[in-house]
Inverse folding.
């Protein structure tokens, strides 16, 4: 089974009014050489954009915490768990 097919098994309830992850400062992303979040996120929530910065879409976030770890030295990611009732539901636990 492909990873995309496994991810498709998950369900996600988006908290439109309060994203659980936010980029603190766009300028920090622009000056970041590696932009590691754009390659390490298993759900591809981060993408390089045309301004040279990073766009974040939290829909589909697996709440793994990887982005928070790779951005640890710059501390440019505000990361909280979603509110109760929102976020990922794993079909297989
Ligand atoms: Fe991606 Fe994991 Fe960060 Fe969610 S917590 S945005 S799945 S790296």
């Amino acid at each position: 089974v492909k990873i995309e097919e496994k991810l498709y098994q998950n369900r996600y309830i988006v908290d439109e009014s309060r994203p659980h992850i936010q980029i603190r400062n766009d300028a920090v992303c622009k000056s970041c050489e590696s932009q590691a979040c754009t390659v390490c996120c298993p759900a591809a929530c981060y993408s390089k954009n045309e301004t040279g910065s990073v766009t974040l879409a939290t829909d589909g976030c697996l709440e793994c915490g990887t982005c928070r770890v790779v951005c640890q030295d710059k501390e440019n990611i505000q990361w909280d768990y979603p509110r109760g009732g929102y976020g990922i539901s794993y079909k297989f636990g």
